[in-house]
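Running this now, will post back.
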Amino acid sequence: MQFLKILFWCLLAFVAAVFTVGNWTTVPIKLWGGLIAEVNLPLLLFVTFLLGLVPTMIYYHAVRWRLRNRLATSERTVTDLRGALAPAPVVVADPGIEPPLEVAPAEPTLAPVPPSSPAPGAA
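Update: finished.
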């Protein structure tokens, strides 16, 4: 795979060199105040390419940095939440020790209720 990368970059450099040699002419650029700058065409194309590439690359790296930070924060939050929800460790008793006996609570007893006497004046 590394060989293919090197081959690609060599081919790209060869094409750029052939283009540069074939188009080595000066181009007049009108500046402010009546100034005229004569610039080689390959240099002018390279500068315009960089003017389009550099801001885009800066934006791309800023977006990747921001997303990487958001992902790290989310992963940290998930890890913290998983740690908080982890079940309590189970203690395994020694098989030589008998567990304590559970005593069932006694059933409540009801006291006998005396019969109610009729209210005075009731027939």
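The mean pLDDT is 85. More later if anyone needs it.
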